[in-house]
């Protein structure tokens, strides 16, 4: 990267953050060079999944072609090389999150499985009939359904922190909802549907004052904001590799050691055991107790490469660039009177959900696709959010550090094309 001389001044970020050389960065992403329907690809679907830099692709190829083997149990050279690379990836995750111990880092398939692991394992060990779980109105389905499942099994009650029309939680309601019956809180850090950044640090503090553990869904925040487990002090934190410019099929659960040690295994099988007999099984230490069977070895290695890549750029620089893109995109789409922005929280990250008059979002997405612009349309696995706002779906553009203002200009021209078609 070749930094420019000026620095961005973005609220909540270091004013000395050096702007990114985004055009240099784009050279690292092979897919961004392609065309779609004869038009240059404008990829604005980053909240769903992100594209992969060459460094991640190279790490995957090297893992499979250079030293691939199963890990942990082999004494031969390939197995030891693969084991070392896999555990180095765990160390990189620990450093990325500023966790205290590598044993607090559990590899899963994705953020969804991480939440299911906690709901099932923590729920079986610590939750009792009549207990209440507190979530928010902004949650992705992945942070709703697992709690409903364990709730139905154990007779638990799910309570929901309400939100306003801007997509902000009613924070005055939150402390009143923390009662003696509240035994767990699960919150999204950043809304995938609206871009709202929740004040999770303060919400965690208030829950901890009452002895209530907190899980933070960081699927959207980990790729775009600096996250620090020692600063947040949450009990659990989850994210997915594929949203952090890494491979699909690999996710992370951070859990405080005091909880993981006491939680029963989520699945049984190989490598999560210390000793097995037909009479009794003794389980492995953490984190391996929660990693049954052959893991996604190359996926973890690829995630480690993705973490190396984003840390080299700098999370503050990433957040500043994406904040600037969001502000610019808001200005661009707002020039059209027919466009309604959905989600106007004061504290937002790089997600812009919108509607155009009475045009169905799927029609918006189809026309934009013909212009080479990839966005997401639908309820974004957040149907309760849509129900609260009285709409079935939105069109959603979401940004990453490799996006440019020129691409947002193309988005604006494509919205004009939608209006022309439907006039």
Please give a structural write-up.
- With 423 residues, the protein is α/β, with parallel strands linked by helices.
- It has two domains: 22-51 and 314-422, Aspartate Aminotransferase, domain 1, CATH 3.90.1150.10; 57-311, Type I PLP-dependent aspartate aminotransferase-like (Major domain) (Aspartate Aminotransferase, domain 2, 3-Layer(aba) Sandwich), CATH 3.40.640.10.
- It is built from 14 helices and 17 strands.
- A seven-stranded mixed β-sheet has the order 4-10-9-8-7-5-6, with helices on both faces. It has a four-stranded antiparallel β-sheet with strand order 13-14-17-16, with helices on one face. It has a two-stranded antiparallel sheet with strand order 1-2.
- Helix 4 runs parallel beside helix 5, helix 11 (315-334) runs parallel beside helix 14 (405-422) and helix 12 packs across helix 14 (405-422).
- It is globular and about 75 Å long.
- Residues 1-13 have low confidence and may be disordered.
Question: Which key features would you list for this structure?
Answer:
423 residues, alpha/beta, Aspartate Aminotransferase, domain 1, Aspartate Aminotransferase, domain 2, seven-stranded mixed beta sheet, four-stranded antiparallel beta sheet, 38% helix
Task: Describe the structure concisely.
With 423 residues, the chain is α/β, with parallel strands linked by helices. It is built from 14 helices and 17 strands.
CATH superfamily of the largest domain: Type I PLP-dependent aspartate aminotransferase-like (Major domain)
CATH class placement of the largest domain: Alpha Beta
Please outline the major beta sheet. Answer: 7 strands, mixed
The total count of helices amounts to: 14
Beta-strand content estimate: 15-25%
> Number of folding domains?
2
The overall pLDDT, averaged over residues, is 94
Strand order of the largest sheet: 4-10-9-8-7-5-6
| N-to-C CA distance | 45 Å
The CATH topology of the largest domain = Aspartate Aminotransferase, domain 2
| SSE class | alpha/beta
Query: What is the 3D shape?
Result: globular
Task: Specify the CATH architecture of the largest domain.
Answer: 3-Layer(aba) Sandwich
Model regions low in confidence, pLDDT < 50 over at least 5 residues: 1-13
Radius of gyration: 22 Å
Helix share, percent: 25-40%
The beta-strand count equals 17
């Amino acid at each position: 990267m070749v930094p420019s001389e000026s620095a961005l001044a973005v609220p909540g970020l270091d004013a000395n953050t050096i702007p990114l050389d985004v055009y240099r960065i784009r050279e690292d992403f092979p897919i961004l060079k392609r065309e779609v329907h004869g038009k240059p690809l404008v990829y604005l679907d980053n909240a769903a999944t992100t594209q992969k830099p060459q460094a991640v692709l190279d790490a995957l190829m090297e893992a499979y072609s250079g030293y691939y083997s199963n890990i942990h149990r082999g004494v031969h050279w390939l197995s030891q090389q693969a084991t070392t690379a896999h555990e180095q990836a765990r160390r990189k995750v620990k450093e990325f999150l500023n966790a205290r111990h590598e044993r607090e880092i559990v590899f899963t398939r994705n953020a969804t499985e991480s939440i299911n692991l906690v709901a099932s394992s923590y729920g079986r060990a610590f939750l009792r009939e009549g207990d209440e779980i507190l979530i928010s109105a902004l949650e992705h389905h992945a942070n709703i359904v697992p709690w409903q499942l364990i709730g139905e099994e154990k007779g638990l009650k799910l309570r929901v922190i309400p939100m306003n029309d801007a997509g902000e939680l009613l924070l005055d309601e939150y402390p009143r909802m923390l009662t003696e019956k509240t035994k767990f809180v699960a919150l999204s850090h950043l809304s995938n549907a609206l871009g709202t950044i929740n004040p999770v640090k303060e919400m965690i503090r208030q829950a901890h004052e009452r002895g209530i553990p907190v899980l933070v869904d960081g699927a959207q925040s980990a790729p775009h904001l600096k996250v620090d487990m020692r600063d947040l002090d949450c009990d659990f934190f989850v994210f997915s590799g594929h949203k952090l410019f890494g491979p699909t099929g690999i996710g992370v659960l951070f859990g405080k050691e005091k909880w993981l040690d006491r939680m029963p295994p989520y699945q049984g099988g190989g490598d999560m055991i210390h000793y097995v007999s037909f009479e009794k099984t003794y389980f492995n230490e953490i984190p391996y107790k929660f990693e049954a069977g052959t893991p996604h070895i190359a996926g973890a290695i690829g995630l480690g490469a993705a973490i190396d890549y984003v840390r080299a750029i700098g999370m503050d620089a990433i957040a500043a660039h994406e904040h600037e893109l969001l502000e610019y995109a808001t200005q661009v789409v707002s020039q059209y009177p027919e466009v309604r922005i959905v989600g106007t929280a004061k504290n937002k990250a790089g997600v812009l959900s919108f509607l155009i008059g009475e045009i169905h979002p799927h029609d918006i997405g189809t026309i934009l696709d013909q212009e080479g612009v990839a966005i997401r349309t639908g309820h974004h696995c957040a149907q309760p959010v849509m129900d609260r706002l009285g709409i079935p779906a939105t069109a959603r553009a979401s940004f990453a550090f490799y996006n440019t203002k020129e691409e947002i200009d193309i988005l604006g021209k494509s919205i004009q094309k939608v209006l022309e078609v439907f006039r």
